[in-house]
Specification:
Blueprint (H helix, E strand, L loop, with lengths): L9 E4 L12 H11 L3 E4 L6 H17 L4 E4 L2 H7 L3 E4 L6 H8 L4 E6 L2 H9 L4 E4 L16 H14 L3 H5 L1 E5 L7 H7 L11 E4 L1 H4 L4 H13 L19 H22 L2 E5 L5 H11 L2 E4 L6 H5 L4 E5 L5 H17 L3 E4 L7 H13 L4 E4 L1 H10 L22 H15 L2 E4 L4 E4 L4 E4 L12 H19 L4 H21 L6 H20 L11
Parallel strand pairs: 1-2, 1-8, 2-3, 3-4, 4-5, 5-6, 6-7, 7-8, 9-10, 9-11, 11-12, 12-13, 13-14
Antiparallel strand pairs: 14-15, 15-16
Helix pairs in contact: 1-2, 1-10, 2-3, 11-18, 11-19, 12-18, 12-20, 14-15, 16-17, 18-19, 19-20
The structure holds ligand 3NM and magnesium ion.
The site of magnesium ion (MG) has 4 residues, from loops.
Length: 538
């Protein structure tokens, strides 16, 4: 097999310890993994004597050859030579890449463990064929790992490779390792693919999720199908479609014309909005959902999320009460909706205000895919920071109010579109002028009213609105999620304007019931075909 043709997509690293392999025979376990579809195998054994290493490596090599799969040896260049397998994997404390290359020659595969851009740079310069990037997530399999670098750390290295022009950097393969299993493998591969990073990951490396599995064959098959199939949470369409005209007024016209269709979709599907939200807004959010023509479920119990996710609704995760218990329930619900393909809106309330909230945000971002993340300037800045961007820290935020705006509109547009591209989702930054983007297209929406900022929970009800619109769009199939989100946003904000203008509205108190009425009327008028949508307001 030629080195250049090696498939790194499902990379098995073995472990012979009692805790992982148990009393099973390693060659038999690897055989099951090969049948299940691993594409490359690394024999990693830190304790056996050299004679045992060589005899096990021989047995593994025979099995691998039968499946036409390359075998690498961790650390031990001498063992690789003795069995004449396809190469080695070297840690930072192992033999240098240059020495290994001198011994093994140009045709053997040499991989290197790296956990930083500097280490990656050196490994590539010295001729590594692939980089094992880690540690992605904390793992019981290897306790003495140097750094847990997370998705952001892996992406930093991929971004670096993407920025290099030399042939070695452009050709090096990449796998990440640490804590990868069936529950996170799709999110990891989705978030480490273009356009999130310019340099795609070649594969994922796994130890315990295969070797320690009770049924190695079926666990490997599951992992294989998870990396082969598109993830259920991936947006159906990330382009407005062939009738889209690229620029200017027509673009806006097209969008405004699409709004009534989305409103009608919410009414005809009675889309479910499942809210995991804080006590302050439960009642308000449920009433807004009903006024939209959607169907609210206020349930903070993660245990029922799997059943609810089957009802084709949307989920809102509101970080207002980010207690450990709430986060546990959120994670269950996120997994359930991601698996069912139901849209999730994240409302990172007060993100960045306290270290507990920063941790909660990082936890949620690692828990799954969010179709939309909406927040004010400080919250979106906190999300950007948690996603590896350098954003000036303006987090001296009190309570969960919007704080003072620091970014210009142009800066907001840049932040929002870059973040949306990185997270491959929709980012909405709310304010007097809202900025919304899916990374490909960015819009500003200048509707709304100052009363929205004087009533608690309006932001949360906007999350509810977006979840209903996204769910309706998903159910109807071929739509464009960004337009559905904008339709929900415009419905919500135009209703606020109309409510504020009413003679019976004197201030924030009288605004609330009028707002619910106007949300309801707008939807009803559209459904009955009497609406006039005014393009200029968008
Ligand atoms: N190398 P699991 S982490 C062998 O960070 C290894 O370089 C790591 O095991 C690194 O898939 C690791 O069971 C163990 O989490 C990964
Ligand atoms: Mg080593």
């Amino acid at each position: 097999m030629k080195k250049a043709q090696v498939d790194y997509s499902l990379y098995l690293v073995t472990d012979s310890t009692e805790a992982i392999l148990g009393s099973r025979n390693l060659a038999d376990v690897v055989e099951q993994a090969l049948r299940g579809g691993v594409t490359i195998v690394q024999y990693r054994d830190k304790t056996s004597d050299t004679a045992d290493l060589i005899s096990t490596a021989k047995a593994l090599h025979a099995r691998c050859k039968a499946h036409d799969i390359p075998l690498l040896i961790n650390d031990r260049v001498d063992v690789a030579l003795a069995v004449d397998c396809e190469g080695v994997h070297l840690g930072q404390d192992d033999m240098s890449i240059a020495s290994a290359r001198a011994i093994l020659g140009p045709d053997k595969i040499i991989g290197a463990t790296v956990s930083s851009v500097d280490e990656a740079k050196v490994a590539v310069e010295r001729g590594a064929d692939y980089l094992g990037i880690g540690t992605l997530y904390a793992t019981n399999t290897k306790k003495n790992t140097k750094d847990i670098i997370g998705i952001n750390g892996v992406r930093e290295i991929l971004d670096y490779l993407g920025s290099q022009q030399d042939e070695a950097s452009k050709g090096v393969k990449t796998v990440c390792i640490g804590g990868i299993n069936a529950s996170n493998i799709q999110l990891i591969t989705y978030l480490l693919s273009p356009p999130s990073t310019p340099y795609p990951l070649s594969g994922v490396a796994i130890v315990s999720a295969i070797i320690a599995a009770p049924d190695v064959l079926s666990s490997t098959r599951t992992l294989k199908s998870l990396i082969t199939a598109p993830p259920p949470f991936a947006p159906y369409s990330t382009s407005p479609g062939p009738s889209w005209r690229a620029e200017g007024v027509e673009e806006m016209r097209f969008l405004v014309d699409a709004i009534p269709r989305h409103i009608t979709a919410v009414h005809s599907s009675h889309s479910l909005s499942h809210n995991m939200t804080n006590l302050v807004v439960q009642n308000f959010a449920a009433n807004i959902a009903l006024a939209l023509g959607a169907s609210p479920i206020m349930s903070n119990n993660g245990l029922e999320a799997a059943d609810l996710a089957r009802l084709h609704g949307g989920l809102v995760i509101n970080m207002g009460t980010a207690t450990p218990d709430a986060l546990h329930n959120h994670r269950l619900a996120i997994a359930a909706y991601n698996a069912a393909g139901g849209p999730i809106v994240l409302d990172p309330v007060g993100a960045g205000a306290t270290s507990a909230r920063r941790e909660a945000l990082a936890f949620l971002l690692a828990s799954g895919y969010f179709d939309v993340i909406k927040g004010n300037e400080r919250e979106i800045s906190a999300v950007a920071r948690a996603s590896g961007f350098t954003v000036e820290d303006t987090s001296q935020q009190r309570g969960v109010d919007s704080g003072t705006a620091l970014l210009t509109l142009a800066q907001k547009a840049t932040t929002v579109s870059r973040l949306a591209r990185r997270l491959r989702n929709i980012i909405l930054l709310t304010g007097p002028v809202d900025v919304i983007s899916d990374g490909a297209h960015t819009y500003t929406v200048a509707n709304g009213h100052a009363y929205l900022g004087l009533v608690t929970g309006t932001g949360c009800t906007l999350g509810t609105t977006l979840s209903a619109y996204l769910a309706a769009e998903r159910q109807s199939g071929a739509g464009y999620a960004l337009f559905a989100a904008i339709a929900g946003l415009v419905h919500f904000e135009v209703a606020a304007e109309d409510a504020a203008r009413r003679v019976d509205v004197q201030g924030p108190g009288t605004f609330v019931p009028a707002f619910i009425d106007e949300v309801w009327k707008r939807g009803r008028d559209v459904v009955e075909g009497r609406a006039e949508w005014v393009g200029e307001r968008v």
